[in-house]
Amino acid sequence: MIHDFFLTEWFFYVLRWLYGVFGNSYFLTILAVTLVLRLVQIFPDIQSRKTQKKQAEIQPQIDKLKEKYSNDPQKLNQEQNKLMRENGIGCLSGCLPMLLTLPLFFCFLAAFRFWGYEQTVKLTYETIVNETRAEQTYESFRFGWITNIWQPDSGLAPVVTPAKTVAAYGSNQSLFACFKKQDTTTSKIGNLVILHDGYTDFDGNFVSGEEIWRTFTESGLAKGEYGTEQMLLLSDEASQQKYDELMQVYKKGYNNGWFILPILAAAFQFLLAWFSQKQQKKANPAASAQQNMNFMMYLFPIMSIVFCMTSTSAFALYWVLSSVLQIGSSTLINYLMNKKEKPAEIVQK
């Protein structure tokens, strides 16, 4: 998506590039991106685990400080911070993986949403101009039990992107757009990459963004001059009805999926939270932070279900693969650290 947050744009272009490299395979593209991101996160994850080990080793000293300064919270805080600094423990070092994961999560959520916008626009154009090529594109959207990977894996989701969702493309460019009052006379639909750079179809022919927009306007699905802020897609009931009639050929089922990816995402997130809690309790049984882990064990799975049921199946697949890889890498890191790492030298208070 052009003119969006730079990291979201970068992720989006990487997804499009890898999609071409892997022969238009969604699964291989998503798997490759997930692997790369997990490799990036491994280093702060290792540092976080080293910090947790050190925190466990100085816990007896912290307990002594709590007993000594039980009536002086300010002094206790100063002495605890001093002890942690002397042992090379940063206040935020244990939170680095989470601080890195959250921005990546939201940027990828947006990037996958924009990728879905682009694919729906491409399918709509090809349905108008070339029935055979459109059928090829639509068949490429299938993934296992999922009819359309750009719709949620849900028994409640239609197999074709609804007209109202397509109409919102121009006003839904930002993660924070829901807090803004929308202007119905202008749109950012022209910022969709496919309407800016065009694409190459299955026959190897280049289709320009201007050609796509001209075809949409001539078919009554859009209005406004190409390249201006007055470009509007499915802006009224008549154009939305034409879109629904056009895409009726793909409505071969009542639901797009069976909730499998959201359930898997929640299950793996629960397993990951349980695994993290177990490791932290093992490393530092006395740490008071453990009390918050039970809450996190249920929060992340619930969040996973909500995001995966309201986002594209492509994003849900990424989230499931990411959770599986995180569990596997965490298990390996813990095994290697427990096997090879010697106890750190602790500064006594």
Highlighted features:
two-stranded antiparallel ribbon, 349 residues, elongated, mainly alpha
The computed structural class is: mainly alpha
Total beta strand runs: 4
Shape: elongated
What is the N-to-C succession of helices and strands? HHHHHHHEEHEEHHHH
Distance between the termini: 55 Å
Question: What topology, given as strand order, has the largest sheet?
Answer: 1-2
Radius of gyration: 25 Å
Number of helical elements: 12
Mind describing the biggest β-sheet?
2 strands, antiparallel
Mean pLDDT: 83
Name the poorly predicted regions.
Answer: 172-185
Topology:
Elements: H1 6-21, H2 26-68, H3 73-86, H4 96-129, H5 131-140, H6 163-167, H7 193-197, E1 199-200, E2 206-207, H8 209-218, E3 222-223, E4 232-233, H9 237-246, H10 260-283, H11 293-310, H12 313-340
Antiparallel strand pairs: 1-2, 3-4
Question: TL;DR of this structure?
Answer:
The protein has 349 residues and is mostly helical.
Describe the protein in words.
- With 349 residues, the protein is mostly helical.
- Helices cover 62% and strands 2% of the residues.
- It is elongated, with a radius of gyration of 25 Å.
- The model is unreliable at 172-185 (pLDDT under 50).
